[in-house]
Amino acid sequence: MSTPRLSVVVPFYNVGAYIGDCLDSIARQTFTDFEAILVDDGSPDDSAVIAKEMCAQDPRFRIVEQENAGLGPARNTGVEHATGEYVTFVDSDDLVTRHGFGLLIRALDRTGSDFAGGNARRFNNSYGVRPSWLHAQAFTADLLATHISETPQLVLDRMVWNKVYRRSFWDEYGYRFPAIRYEDYPVTLKAHLDAVTVDTIAAPVYFWRERESGDSITQQKFQLANIRDRVVSAGLVLDQVEDALPVIRHRVHAHFRQIDLHAILSAFGTVPPEEEQHLVELTTELLDRLDEAVLVNSPRLAQLQFAALRAGDLELLHKVALDPDAAQEHLQLTKSDFTLATSVLEVTWIDGELSVRGTAEIRHLQSKPSDLRIGLVIAGKNYRLPVRRYPATDLRGEQSMVGFEVRVNRDLLAKCTAGPSHFDVRLRVGGIRRRDVLRGQKAGSPGWPPGAWIDETNWIQPGPGTNGALAVRRLSDPCRLTSVEQTPEALVLHGRSAFDEPSLFVSRPLSGGEEQVPLELDGRDFTARVPIRPILEETNPDDPFSQRTTRAFRMRSPEGREQVLLWTAGDRLVSHAEGGRVVMLTRSTGGYVNLHESPIRMTATAAVVAGTMLVVRGPDWGEAAFSWRRYLPGSDDHVDVECRRTVSDDGWAAVVDMAALEPAEWILFATALDGTAHAVQCEPFLSSRLPLTIQRGAHTLAVRPLAGTLHLEIT
Predict the structure, then answer these.
(1) What are the DSSP calls for 479-544, one per residue?
(2) Which of 175, 276, 412, 569 measures 20 to 30 Å from 71, CA to CA?
(3) Concatenated DSSP letters for 211-233?
(4) pLDDT tens sequence across 520-561
(5) Residue 280 host element (H or E)
């Protein structure tokens, strides 16, 4: 048997609920020349049974057993048994994208770098899939043969599992994981410092589970033993950067202040009295290691906590940890504290005009009386808009005159260009004036803004702009989908191209590659048939959690001009379900055509109020029971409120009496006949019509999408 190119080290302990999916995601890799070393770290549950079943099915997998020693030592054991040219690590409750290993190894083969890392996603059953904040900062672009000294944001790359290391590099420096929690960062940062070059891949290669119960290591923020290991790990990293380049040293110190020290200070809100002094000592140990230049440039609330810690003021530390806003009475406000805060609550079309509703206020100031001016900036020229103001919830959680609505008429929208136009916000409260762009898009229509025609050839598409601003773009005669027909064998797309003799290509953004779709042309009008069965029969999804593959459509002229295909085909998805899987043709966040294929997950397409009842509807793809679920704090235990299910020609409806739902955050779940439960997906066109806000007595109910699933927040 030849030596595999890649060794995959998978330690496991008490992960019987997750390890099967993890190992399956590894087995599905498009890069097949690997061995997987499964290290049983004395697991007391049935994890080993599941692991051995995989070893019996797939000879690339083998198991190594040891007494319980912790994740770090178990990884070390796996490396000792590894034989590959490269080595990587996977935590046994996480998932690897189908192309992850291949993307990283192709980069290393091309560059000869010491290791390669890629982007990551967070996921769980309640909130779906969303970007990992840390990795989104570190892996912004494909960078080959770079180094932390020229790409200092790699300081934030503190996890070991989103990388493939060259084994010769690993052995040359003798990396060993310490027997503590937070064992990754001391190894990964040292590797960045030791490497000659590294490669970064912007595409997601790893899915990082966030458990509902919060019982994974990185979620156990408020346990003293966890905090002790966190401080030890930080000390090891700070030792490594003691003589590093100033930019690296500063970024590491600033990162620990922003993330780790902040998390530890938050523990004063829940620490039992008998452990307070231990927490003080640990927090002070980390605080004393951080550079004074970092501390003095911290937010003033953080500086208040530092001072309280050094003074032994446990009462103030407890108060700030539980309610940071309550600490404002201890702060002397300065001019820099009075910043403009905006949000975008709703983006809709009313009588042919673009309506934007949001809030604007100056932090720490009452917003009445005040003067608010909003303009749309098009190609550098500011067009002032009429502003309607109304009471809304402000930053203090109170009702005040911070709400606004502006409408942009067709004549002004016609002046917009293909480049982003943004909203300019100016607010005066007394003698204080502040100005900024409109940003702060909330869940629902601000994240999925609907577009519209303003005449026969010009389409207006709101969406994200520079630095998070809400932007407006005018697309003149775009390549577009105008209607869809559905036959038993195919989706028939009708549309119009922006150029003559076009070609249509379908691609998979996460995994690359494209296929041409034959066209029937009538001038610039086109018809394309997309066969359904070949899509359903493909069983290698790009998203290892949702098992979804997304395809995008692009039109190309004979000269090589390209445009992404815009959705202008109404406000309903088109779907085909068969054999437990479903194909959905719908829109993206930017308004373009997407084709999704996945296992059947019940999907909501409408949410309405009928008297005292909240009714959610969706296409009927099979039997399922529906319930609104809330998780108990710090637990996988949950409370379910069952819905009454009805079925009609329009699909299913899940009906609940809103009086049965207490103030909390609820998630709509569907439970199949086999007992498996999944959060109900929120279809993009429904997302573009949300939030749905209901006032019931003293309580406010808001139905909104979060990471693709349907949530109900009751306050």
Answers:
(1) -EEEEEEE-SSEEEEEEE-SSSS-EEEEE-TTT--EEEE-EEEETTEEEEEEESHHHHH----S-T
(2) 276
(3) -TT--SGGG-TT-HHHHHHHHHH
(4) 999 999 999 999 999 988 767 888 888 889 999 999 999 999
(5) helix 276-289
Tell me the CA distances in angstroms from 271 to 46, 277, 637, one per residue in order.
34, 10, 23
Which amino acid is located at 366 in the chain?
A: Q
Tens-digit pLDDT profile for residues 247-296: 999 999 999 999 999 999 999 998 899 999 999 999 999 999 999 999 99
CA distances from 12 to 64, 80, 419, 617, 674 (A): 10, 16, 50, 41, 27
One DSSP character per residue, 425-457 reads: EEEEETTEEEEEE-B-BPSSTTTSPPPEESSSS
* Gyration radius (Cα) of the chain, Å: 27
CA–CA separation, 182 and 179 (whole Å): 9
Could you tell me the pTM of the whole model?
0.85
Q: For residues 79 and 24, is the Cβ–Cβ distance under 8 A?
A: no
Task: Provide the residue type at 593 as one letter.
Answer: V
CB 552 within 8 A of CB 510: no
Length of the chain: 715
Q: What are 641's two structure tokens? A: 């409120």
Which residue in the block uniquely carries the two structure tokens 């000269």? 559
d(CA 576, CA 570): 17
Cα–Cα nearest to 626, from 666, 589, 653: 653
Q: Cα–Cα distance between 194 and 190 in angstroms, integer?
A: 6
Q: Where does 120-275 have alpha helices with state H?
A: 133-138, 167-173, 184-194, 224-240, 246-255, 262-266
For the chain, what percentages of helix, strand and coil (3-state, to nearest 5) are there? 25, 40, 35
Distance CA(508)–CA(515), nearest Å, equals 9
Phi (first) and psi of residue 466, to 5 degrees: -70, 135
**Interior/surface letters 683-707, b for 16+ CB within 10 angstroms, e for the rest:** bbbbbbbbbbeeeeeeeebbbbbbb
Q: What's the rounded Cα separation, in Å, for the pair 539 and 581? A: 10
- Where are any strands of DSSP class E within 45-161? 61-66, 86-89, 95-96, 115-124, 128-131, 143-146
**72 close to 178: Cβ distance less than 8 angstroms:** yes
User: What's the average model confidence in pLDDT over 475-486?
Assistant: 97
Q: Which residues sit opposite 343 in a β-bridge?
A: 359
Task: Compute how many other C-beta atoms are within 10 angstroms of the C-beta atom of residue 569.
Answer: 19
CB of 19 closer than 8 Å to CB of 61: no
User: Taking a C-beta distance cutoff of 8 angstroms, is the pair 121, 204 a contact?
Assistant: yes
